[in-house]
Amino acid sequence: MSALTIRKFYEEILQFVGKKVLIETSYDKNYSGTLSAIDERLDTVLENLEGQGILRIIINGTFVKEIKLLEKPFDLKGLADRLSRVFPGLVKIRDDVKAIIVMDKIKVTEHGIEEGSGLAADRVKSIYDEFVREFKK
After folding, report:
1. Domain boundaries of the chain, sorted by first residue
2. Per residue in 11-34, pLDDT tens?
3. Distance from chain centroid for Cα 13
4. Which CATH superfamily is domain 76-135 in?
5. pLDDT at site 137
């Protein structure tokens, strides 16, 4: 595999961290919980397992058959479209860092405002908060 392919693979699996997943193992056991860590061998750490009576489990990557995301991914483009209605022409999506840049100074990710302050940042935050509330419905 090329270095670019490997890098893209790691970017994709890291998007699962902090999300609710279902891990199917090669020994036909399924675990559902929050993925808190994963490494290059697909060794995984799951927390808050559902219906297992287990708080945290480490699964050896050699037994991981499949990892399924159980929650829909954050709609960064949808948020950018919403922000563009309030800030026309001032919103850019940065796919390389999975962020939205508003007015070249306010950085927004799926986790909220990461850079920026002032009245414009406050307005962006209120739009973000409303979007997240609707997104979780």
Report:
1. 3-69, 76-135
2. 888 888 988 999 999 999 999 999
3. 10
4. Like-Sm ribonucleoprotein, C-terminal domain (3.30.310.60)
5. 64
